[in-house]
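BUG: 3D viewer hangs when loading the predicted structure for this chain

Environment: internal workstation, default settings.
Expected: structure renders.
Actual: progress bar stalls at 90%.

Input used:
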Amino acid sequence: MSLSNPFARRLYLRIWLAVVGGIAVLTLVVGWAWRIAEEQKASNNQPFVPPSREMVLRDAKGDVVFRGPAARQPSEPGENVEFHIESDTGQTFVLQMAPRPQNRGGRGGGDAAFWTRPPFGFLWLLGIVGLAVAVGVYPIIRRLTLRLEALQRSVKHFGEGDLSVRVPEQGQDEVADLARQFNAAAARVETLVKSHKSLLANASHELRSPLTRIRMGMELMGGQQPSPAFRAEILRNIAELDQLVDEILLASRLDAREADVGTVETVDLVGLAAEECARVDADLDVGASPDGVDVQGISKLLRRAIRNLLENARRYSTGEISVAVLRHQGHAEVRVCDQGPGVPASQRERIFEPFYRLPGASERAGGVGLGLALVRSIAGRHNGMVFCEDRPDGAGGACFVLRLPVSASSATP
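Structure tokens produced before the viewer hung:
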């Protein structure tokens, strides 16, 4: 892992680095400016003492009167300048000179603007450096907070009911991870809401049909004693309503994955398939798994999945129904094959949608359009899958395959 990765993945590290870097730069520049100011102050407080130089005094004729070194005595700015001259004979002379006017911008800075004199010059420098550091750090902090503001706006719009809103996923830090999690949660919520709306709309339609038939039958009966055929029709419609309500409730509980739908235990798929095959008189190939096939799952849900596949096959099949339970490539498979008209390749995914029926099959007795959708939900609850394919022998009909992870106890044949 490169050294830049921790900073790319941790927002607090980048903010900390920006602040520490700004403070470090400010500290270094302030220290340098302080040193310069102190040196300037020290130089201004100490009088300038030039080195001794030789001085020659001549008369009007140009003859040398005496020759000797001249040393300037320390003096404060604005005072007379004195030179002490010692001749070769030991005599000492004092030469006094009036102070010359100080030039603007000279060493003393007498005519300089007040804001350039110490300590004002240092304060100005400190302010400029602080402003530069603030301007330099601001884009870094602002770039980080812009994504937080985008996330805030998206959450607000999502809370107001716009379930299609998503957050741009930029970077690899905590904000980017939060954006990805928000988008995933938003997509999940949007899918669930659409699914529940579709379920409600289709359930209302499906509930209306048997209720309408019951109401019309009661009106036609006109208070007379119902005939056995009419009574059987009423009971059939009531059973359809009961089945529809039961499947709608189960579908809702499966959508809410936190709902308790049963205890996970070791389930013998061969035993479940044998019981359900006996109920609908289907053929079970016991030779495919002579040692049994065990999976970890909820027994009543797996039984419901196998039952729905068998009832779907019985509804559309014109011949025998065959069932095989076997192990295949590390998975347990329940294959339910019928001899019906088959399923077109273009419809093999849609038939697992709630309340979807193949064209021309909406009036078939017994089906409410949720059986295969429940099988897919049950398979997903067990980390498995279900799909439809052609019969392996090439004969007419379809095979529905329920594939589940095999448990450790039966992983080896």
